[in-house]
Protein backbone atom coordinates (compact mmCIF):
# COMPACT_ATOMS: atom_id res chain seq x y z
CA UNK A 1 0.00 0.00 0.00
CA UNK A 2 1.29 3.44 -0.96
CA UNK A 3 1.42 5.94 1.89
CA UNK A 4 0.34 9.30 0.46
CA UNK A 5 0.86 12.47 2.47
CA UNK A 6 -1.00 15.75 1.85
CA UNK A 7 0.82 18.86 3.05
CA UNK A 8 -1.44 21.31 4.89
CA UNK A 9 -0.68 24.96 5.66
CA UNK A 10 -2.50 28.23 6.24
CA UNK A 11 -4.27 29.65 3.17
CA UNK A 12 -3.90 26.57 0.96
CA UNK A 13 -6.13 26.08 -2.09
CA UNK A 14 -8.67 23.51 -0.91
CA UNK A 15 -9.32 21.88 -4.30
CA UNK A 16 -5.61 21.11 -4.66
CA UNK A 17 -5.99 18.79 -1.67
CA UNK A 18 -9.58 17.55 -1.96
CA UNK A 19 -9.41 16.77 -5.71
CA UNK A 20 -6.44 14.36 -5.61
CA UNK A 21 -7.56 12.95 -2.25
CA UNK A 22 -11.05 12.12 -3.55
CA UNK A 23 -9.57 10.57 -6.71
CA UNK A 24 -7.26 8.29 -4.69
CA UNK A 25 -10.06 7.39 -2.28
CA UNK A 26 -12.36 6.58 -5.22
CA UNK A 27 -9.68 4.27 -6.60
CA UNK A 28 -9.51 2.56 -3.21
CA UNK A 29 -13.29 2.14 -3.13
CA UNK A 30 -13.27 0.64 -6.62
CA UNK A 31 -10.63 -1.90 -5.56
CA UNK A 32 -12.63 -2.82 -2.46
CA UNK A 33 -15.75 -3.41 -4.58
CA UNK A 34 -13.64 -5.74 -6.73
CA UNK A 35 -12.62 -7.73 -3.64
CA UNK A 36 -9.08 -6.30 -3.57
CA UNK A 37 -7.19 -4.40 -0.90
CA UNK A 38 -7.04 -0.58 -1.09
CA UNK A 39 -3.89 0.74 -2.74
CA UNK A 40 -3.43 4.05 -0.95
CA UNK A 41 -3.19 5.15 2.68
CA UNK A 42 -4.09 8.84 2.83
CA UNK A 43 -2.75 11.09 5.57
CA UNK A 44 -2.76 14.86 6.12
CA UNK A 45 0.38 16.50 7.50
CA UNK A 46 1.45 19.89 8.79
CA UNK A 47 4.30 21.49 10.70
CA UNK A 48 2.13 21.35 13.81
CA UNK A 49 -1.16 19.62 14.62
CA UNK A 50 -3.31 22.72 14.93
CA UNK A 51 -6.31 24.13 13.15
CA UNK A 52 -5.54 25.71 9.78
CA UNK A 53 -7.76 27.63 7.37
CA UNK A 54 -7.88 27.23 3.61
CA UNK A 55 -8.19 30.22 1.26
CA UNK A 56 -11.96 29.72 1.27
CA UNK A 57 -12.08 29.71 5.08
CA UNK A 58 -12.63 25.99 5.73
CA UNK A 59 -10.89 24.87 8.94
CA UNK A 60 -8.60 21.84 8.63
CA UNK A 61 -6.57 19.92 11.18
CA UNK A 62 -3.68 17.68 10.16
CA UNK A 63 -3.64 14.08 11.32
CA UNK A 64 0.09 14.18 11.99
CA UNK A 65 2.94 16.64 12.43
CA UNK A 66 6.22 16.46 10.53
CA UNK A 67 7.92 14.96 13.59
CA UNK A 68 5.55 12.00 13.48
CA UNK A 69 6.21 11.12 9.82
CA UNK A 70 9.65 10.10 8.62
CA UNK A 71 8.74 8.34 5.38
CA UNK A 72 6.11 8.59 2.65
CA UNK A 73 5.72 7.02 -0.78
CA UNK A 74 4.06 10.11 -2.25
CA UNK A 75 3.91 13.69 -1.00
CA UNK A 76 1.32 16.08 -2.48
CA UNK A 77 2.01 19.81 -2.14
CA UNK A 78 -0.98 22.09 -2.82
CA UNK A 79 -0.96 25.69 -3.95
CA UNK A 80 -2.64 28.73 -2.50
CA UNK A 81 -1.77 32.13 -1.07
CA UNK A 82 0.01 30.45 1.82
CA UNK A 83 2.79 29.04 -0.35
CA UNK A 84 4.82 32.23 0.14
CA UNK A 85 5.07 31.63 3.89
CA UNK A 86 5.83 27.93 3.37
CA UNK A 87 8.72 28.82 1.05
CA UNK A 88 10.29 30.85 3.84
CA UNK A 89 9.89 28.13 6.48
CA UNK A 90 13.24 26.35 6.85
CA UNK A 91 11.71 23.50 8.85
CA UNK A 92 9.18 22.73 6.12
CA UNK A 93 11.79 22.92 3.34
CA UNK A 94 14.12 20.62 5.26
CA UNK A 95 11.34 18.12 5.96
CA UNK A 96 10.25 17.98 2.30
CA UNK A 97 13.83 17.28 1.22
CA UNK A 98 14.09 14.57 3.86
CA UNK A 99 10.89 12.92 2.65
CA UNK A 100 12.01 13.24 -0.99
CA UNK A 101 15.08 11.09 -0.35
CA UNK A 102 12.97 7.93 -0.04
CA UNK A 103 9.67 8.91 -1.68
CA UNK A 104 8.80 7.64 -5.17
CA UNK A 105 6.64 10.67 -6.02
CA UNK A 106 6.83 14.34 -4.99
CA UNK A 107 3.81 16.09 -6.47
CA UNK A 108 3.01 19.80 -6.70
CA UNK A 109 -0.45 21.04 -7.60
CA UNK A 110 -0.97 24.49 -9.12
CA UNK A 111 1.16 27.07 -7.23
CA UNK A 112 2.54 24.32 -5.04
CA UNK A 113 5.26 24.55 -7.70
CA UNK A 114 6.69 27.52 -5.76
CA UNK A 115 7.28 25.28 -2.75
CA UNK A 116 8.72 22.43 -4.80
CA UNK A 117 11.02 24.84 -6.65
CA UNK A 118 12.24 26.36 -3.38
CA UNK A 119 13.43 22.93 -2.17
CA UNK A 120 15.99 22.77 -4.98
CA UNK A 121 14.67 19.42 -6.18
CA UNK A 122 13.54 20.84 -9.52
CA UNK A 123 16.92 22.18 -10.67
CA UNK A 124 17.27 21.53 -14.41
CA UNK A 125 13.93 19.73 -14.59
CA UNK A 126 10.57 20.41 -16.26
CA UNK A 127 7.66 21.72 -14.24
CA UNK A 128 4.26 23.32 -14.80
CA UNK A 129 1.90 25.37 -12.69
CA UNK A 130 -1.13 27.57 -13.21
CA UNK A 131 -0.43 29.47 -16.44
CA UNK A 132 -0.97 32.83 -14.72
CA UNK A 133 2.11 32.33 -12.51
CA UNK A 134 4.59 30.92 -15.03
CA UNK A 135 6.29 34.24 -15.83
CA UNK A 136 6.87 34.92 -12.14
CA UNK A 137 8.19 31.39 -11.55
CA UNK A 138 10.61 31.74 -14.47
CA UNK A 139 11.97 34.96 -13.00
CA UNK A 140 12.33 33.52 -9.51
CA UNK A 141 13.77 30.16 -10.56
CA UNK A 142 15.62 30.60 -13.89
CA UNK A 143 17.33 27.19 -13.73
CA UNK A 144 14.00 25.32 -13.82
CA UNK A 145 12.21 24.61 -17.11
CA UNK A 146 8.73 25.96 -16.40
CA UNK A 147 6.04 25.38 -19.03
CA UNK A 148 2.69 27.16 -19.23
CA UNK A 149 0.85 24.86 -21.62
CA UNK A 150 0.74 21.28 -20.20
CA UNK A 151 -1.96 20.15 -17.81
CA UNK A 152 0.66 18.13 -15.97
CA UNK A 153 4.28 17.02 -16.25
CA UNK A 154 6.17 14.03 -14.86
CA UNK A 155 9.96 14.36 -14.77
CA UNK A 156 11.42 11.39 -12.96
CA UNK A 157 9.76 11.15 -9.57
CA UNK A 158 8.78 14.83 -9.60
CA UNK A 159 5.26 15.57 -10.82
CA UNK A 160 3.53 18.90 -11.27
CA UNK A 161 0.14 20.04 -12.53
CA UNK A 162 -1.45 23.19 -13.81
CA UNK A 163 -4.23 25.01 -12.06
CA UNK A 164 -6.92 23.54 -9.83
CA UNK A 165 -8.74 20.67 -11.59
CA UNK A 166 -5.54 19.73 -13.48
CA UNK A 167 -4.47 18.14 -10.18
CA UNK A 168 -7.23 15.56 -10.62
CA UNK A 169 -6.02 14.82 -14.16
CA UNK A 170 -2.51 14.25 -12.84
CA UNK A 171 -3.83 11.98 -10.08
CA UNK A 172 -5.83 9.90 -12.56
CA UNK A 173 -2.68 9.50 -14.66
CA UNK A 174 -0.75 8.30 -11.60
CA UNK A 175 -3.58 5.90 -10.72
CA UNK A 176 -3.35 4.46 -14.22
CA UNK A 177 0.41 4.01 -13.87
CA UNK A 178 -0.01 2.24 -10.53
CA UNK A 179 -3.20 0.25 -11.04
CA UNK A 180 -3.91 0.14 -14.78
CA UNK A 181 -6.21 1.85 -17.24
CA UNK A 182 -9.36 0.03 -16.03
CA UNK A 183 -9.08 1.36 -12.49
CA UNK A 184 -8.30 4.87 -13.75
CA UNK A 185 -11.36 4.80 -16.02
CA UNK A 186 -13.57 3.49 -13.21
CA UNK A 187 -12.28 6.24 -10.92
CA UNK A 188 -13.01 8.90 -13.55
CA UNK A 189 -16.56 7.54 -13.90
CA UNK A 190 -17.06 7.60 -10.13
CA UNK A 191 -15.95 11.23 -10.11
CA UNK A 192 -18.40 11.91 -12.97
CA UNK A 193 -15.62 13.28 -15.11
CA UNK A 194 -16.49 13.66 -18.79
CA UNK A 195 -13.11 12.31 -19.88
CA UNK A 196 -9.58 11.81 -18.63
CA UNK A 197 -7.35 14.51 -20.08
CA UNK A 198 -3.78 13.74 -21.04
CA UNK A 199 -0.87 15.73 -19.68
CA UNK A 200 -0.01 17.19 -23.08
CA UNK A 201 -3.45 18.76 -23.36
CA UNK A 202 -3.24 22.52 -22.99
CA UNK A 203 -4.35 24.30 -19.82
CA UNK A 204 -5.96 26.82 -22.16
CA UNK A 205 -9.18 24.85 -22.58
CA UNK A 206 -10.33 26.22 -25.91
CA UNK A 207 -14.13 26.34 -25.34
CA UNK A 208 -13.50 28.28 -22.12
CA UNK A 209 -10.78 30.55 -23.41
CA UNK A 210 -12.96 33.41 -24.65
CA UNK A 211 -12.95 35.45 -21.46
CA UNK A 212 -12.92 38.81 -23.24
CA UNK A 213 -15.36 41.49 -22.18
CA UNK A 214 -16.19 41.83 -25.90
CA UNK A 215 -19.52 40.01 -26.16
CA UNK A 216 -19.09 39.73 -29.93
CA UNK A 217 -16.18 37.31 -29.49
CA UNK A 218 -18.07 35.32 -26.87
CA UNK A 219 -21.05 34.95 -29.20
CA UNK A 220 -18.74 34.07 -32.09
CA UNK A 221 -17.16 31.25 -30.11
CA UNK A 222 -20.58 29.77 -29.34
CA UNK A 223 -21.54 30.02 -33.02
CA UNK A 224 -18.32 28.30 -34.10
CA UNK A 225 -18.90 25.44 -31.65
CA UNK A 226 -22.33 24.84 -33.20
CA UNK A 227 -20.98 24.87 -36.74
CA UNK A 228 -17.71 22.94 -36.59
CA UNK A 229 -18.86 20.66 -39.42
CA UNK A 230 -19.18 23.58 -41.85
CA UNK A 231 -16.43 25.32 -43.87
CA UNK A 232 -16.07 28.75 -42.26
CA UNK A 233 -13.91 31.57 -43.62
CA UNK A 234 -12.33 34.42 -41.67
CA UNK A 235 -14.62 36.79 -43.57
CA UNK A 236 -17.66 34.88 -42.33
CA UNK A 237 -16.33 35.08 -38.78
CA UNK A 238 -15.80 38.82 -39.18
CA UNK A 239 -19.31 39.25 -40.58
CA UNK A 240 -20.80 37.34 -37.64
CA UNK A 241 -18.89 39.60 -35.22
CA UNK A 242 -20.06 42.69 -37.17
CA UNK A 243 -16.53 43.86 -37.98
CA UNK A 244 -14.49 44.42 -41.09
CA UNK A 245 -12.11 41.53 -41.75
CA UNK A 246 -9.03 43.67 -41.07
CA UNK A 247 -10.39 45.01 -37.78
CA UNK A 248 -11.62 41.55 -36.80
CA UNK A 249 -8.18 39.99 -37.31
CA UNK A 250 -6.57 42.66 -35.14
CA UNK A 251 -9.15 42.40 -32.33
CA UNK A 252 -9.12 38.61 -32.40
CA UNK A 253 -5.34 38.39 -32.20
CA UNK A 254 -5.28 40.91 -29.38
CA UNK A 255 -7.76 38.97 -27.27
CA UNK A 256 -6.95 35.37 -28.23
CA UNK A 257 -3.22 35.55 -28.99
CA UNK A 258 -3.69 33.49 -32.14
CA UNK A 259 -5.16 33.98 -35.58
CA UNK A 260 -8.86 33.27 -36.24
CA UNK A 261 -7.87 30.43 -38.59
CA UNK A 262 -5.63 28.76 -35.99
CA UNK A 263 -8.30 29.17 -33.32
CA UNK A 264 -10.95 27.51 -35.46
CA UNK A 265 -8.65 24.58 -36.23
CA UNK A 266 -7.84 24.23 -32.54
CA UNK A 267 -11.55 24.16 -31.71
CA UNK A 268 -12.13 21.46 -34.32
CA UNK A 269 -9.23 19.28 -33.19
CA UNK A 270 -10.09 19.61 -29.48
CA UNK A 271 -13.65 18.56 -30.30
CA UNK A 272 -12.34 15.60 -32.29
CA UNK A 273 -10.03 14.60 -29.44
CA UNK A 274 -12.94 14.62 -27.03
CA UNK A 275 -14.97 12.36 -29.34
CA UNK A 276 -12.05 9.93 -29.65
CA UNK A 277 -11.91 9.53 -25.87
CA UNK A 278 -15.61 9.61 -25.07
CA UNK A 279 -17.36 7.93 -28.00
CA UNK A 280 -17.15 4.89 -30.29
CA UNK A 281 -17.58 6.92 -33.48
CA UNK A 282 -15.57 5.84 -36.49
CA UNK A 283 -12.59 7.98 -37.49
CA UNK A 284 -14.39 8.98 -40.71
CA UNK A 285 -17.45 10.10 -38.73
CA UNK A 286 -15.34 12.21 -36.41
CA UNK A 287 -13.57 13.79 -39.37
CA UNK A 288 -16.92 14.70 -40.95
CA UNK A 289 -18.15 16.15 -37.65
CA UNK A 290 -15.45 18.82 -37.84
CA UNK A 291 -15.81 19.53 -41.53
CA UNK A 292 -13.00 17.36 -42.91
CA UNK A 293 -14.28 15.21 -45.76
CA UNK A 294 -11.28 12.86 -46.07
CA UNK A 295 -10.09 10.70 -43.19
CA UNK A 296 -6.49 10.81 -44.45
CA UNK A 297 -6.42 14.60 -44.17
CA UNK A 298 -7.88 14.38 -40.67
CA UNK A 299 -5.22 11.85 -39.64
CA UNK A 300 -2.48 14.10 -40.96
CA UNK A 301 -3.59 17.31 -39.22
CA UNK A 302 -4.42 15.45 -36.01
CA UNK A 303 -0.97 13.85 -35.87
CA UNK A 304 0.71 17.18 -36.59
CA UNK A 305 -1.11 18.73 -33.62
CA UNK A 306 -0.90 15.90 -31.07
CA UNK A 307 1.97 13.70 -32.25
CA UNK A 308 -0.27 10.62 -32.62
CA UNK A 309 -2.76 9.42 -35.21
CA UNK A 310 -6.42 9.42 -34.10
CA UNK A 311 -6.35 5.62 -33.71
CA UNK A 312 -3.15 5.72 -31.66
CA UNK A 313 -4.57 8.49 -29.49
CA UNK A 314 -7.77 6.52 -28.83
CA UNK A 315 -5.80 3.41 -27.86
CA UNK A 316 -3.57 5.33 -25.48
CA UNK A 317 -6.26 7.40 -23.77
UniProtKB/TrEMBL annotation:
Pfam families: DJ-1_PfpI, HTH_18. One of its GO terms (molecular function) is sequence-specific DNA binding. InterPro entries: Class_I_gatase-like, DJ-1/PfpI, Homeodomain-like_sf, HTH_AraC, HTH_AraC-typ_CS, INH-QAR, Tscrpt_reg_AraC-type_HTH. The keyword Transcription regulation applies. Residues 218-316 form the HTH araC/xylS-type domain. The keyword Signal does not apply. Keywords: DNA-binding, Transcription, Transcription regulation. This is AraC family transcriptional regulator with amidase-like domain.
Amino acid sequence: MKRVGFLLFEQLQLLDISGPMDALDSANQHLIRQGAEPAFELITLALNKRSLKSESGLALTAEASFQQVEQLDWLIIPGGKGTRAVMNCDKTMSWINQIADKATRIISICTGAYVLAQTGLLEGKRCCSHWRFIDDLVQRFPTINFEAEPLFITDGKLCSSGGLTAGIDLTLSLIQQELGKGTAQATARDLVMYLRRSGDQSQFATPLSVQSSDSRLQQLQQWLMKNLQKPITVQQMADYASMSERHFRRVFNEHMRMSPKDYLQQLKLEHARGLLMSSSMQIEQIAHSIGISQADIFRRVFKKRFGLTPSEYRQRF
